[in-house]
Specification:
Helix 1 packs parallel to helix 13. The chain is of the alpha/beta class. Helix content is 37%, strand content 16%. It has helices at 14-21, 34-41, 58-63, 82-88, 99-102, 107-120, 123-131, 157-168, 192-198, 218-221, 241-249, 271-276, 293-313, and strands at 3-8, 25-28, 46-49, 69-72, 92-93, 149-153, 172-176, 187-189, 201-204, 228-232, 253-258, 282-284. Strand 3 (46-49), helix 3 (58-63) and strand 4 form a beta-alpha-beta unit.
Length: 314
């Protein structure tokens, strides 16, 4: 009898999985909502997650007696109780550190740059203004990027792309990364407090770990240069959201663009989302940074082949 592989993710990527794994596993692909997924999860042998829509708790993992492996087509997996996996001895394979595939992916960096530009040009408010049958450009003064300073926290794959984009726009680039002291040509490496206090644009590109949780806390938000713009497409938990909203209310921060929120997709209690309802200087996208079909197919194919390789070696 074939092992059961539970897949949740875009339907268009399912054919790729079936082509690679279909002869070896029984593949089930229910609708990606908890009440459809969890009962199957607790019976499956392999969980292949390309959506991050369904939280997996310690109880779910404890009840999944047949579970042998979890694979995600994402770099992060904070929606899965990893401590419970360790206690069960069940491996978790994410894309974190998989440079072979990650170097090919640019959508998250492109989304980050899009948010930065949209904030700089008051784009959300301007679009709504025109939709409301108005036409008064003086209400939407923009910020010229050339000559401004961008501060990049985390000079990895996405941070490095952001540096390239900023250089192309004639910006001064500075970065903070404790794992990269040398940086790249044209990038000044600085400490995080200096970066926060001197950057016109601040953008975050680090993994969420116990060490990086709230790396930008209330005290560091106070250091932000007045009138700066903040971009976060990594994880909401990296920032003290209440302090961030306070800084917006006090007009210490000019605008914010994010692709991530706390407790997503249940966002109605999120302070930043609540503030955004009637403040157009907050732009929020629904965690779409890496969501381009070309990129999804690449990571799903790569992750499916990792399953074959894992069991061939174990």
């Amino acid at each position: 009898m074939k092992d059961v592989l539970l897949y949740i993710g875009p339907e268009y990527a399912q054919e790729t999985i079936e082509n690679i794994l279909g002869s070896s596993y029984k593949i089930l692909a229910p609708e990606g909502v908890p009440d459809k997924v969890i009962p199957i999860f607790e019976e499956c042998d392999i969980f292949f997650d390309a959506s991050m829509k369904v939280p997996v708790s310690a109880d779910n993992i404890h009840n999944a007696k047949n579970l042998k492996l979890i694979v995600t087509a994402t770099t992060g997996a904070n929606h899965i109780d990893q401590k419970a996996l360790e206690q069960r001895g069940v491996p978790l394979l994410t894309l974190k550190g998989q440079k072979e595939i990650l170097q090919e992916l640019t959508p998250a960096a492109e989304q980050s740059w899009l948010l930065l530009m949209a904030c700089a040009r008051n784009l959300r408010g301007a679009i709504h203004h025109v939709e409301d049958s108005q036409w008064n450009r003086v209400e939407f003064p923009g910020i010229m990027l050339k000559g401004k300073t961008i501060g990049i926290i985390g000079l990895g794959r996405i941070g490095s792309w952001m540096a390239r984009y900023a250089t192309a726009f004639g910006m001064k680039v500075q970065a903070y990364d404790p794992f990269n002291d040398e940086g790249n040509d044209g990038i000044e490496m600085v400490d995080i407090n200096h970066l926060l206090s001197t950057s016109d644009f601040i953008t975050v590109h680090v993994h969420l770990t116990p060490e990086t949780a709230q790396i930008i806390d209330a005290e560091r938000i106070k250091l932000f240069k007045r009138g700066s713009i903040f971009i976060n497409t990594s994880r909401a938990e990296l920032v003290d959201v209440n302090a961030l909203v306070d800084a917006l209310k006090e007009e210490h921060i000019a605008a914010i663009g994010v692709d991530v929120l706390f407790n997503e997709p249940d966002i109605k209690n999120d302070p930043l989302w609540q503030h955004s309802i009637d403040h157009y200087n907050v732009i929020i996208s629904p965690h779409i940074g890496g969501y381009c079909p070309e990129a999804v197919i690449k990571v799903v194919e790569f992750s499916a082949k990792r399953i074959l390789k894992y069991f061939a070696n174990n």
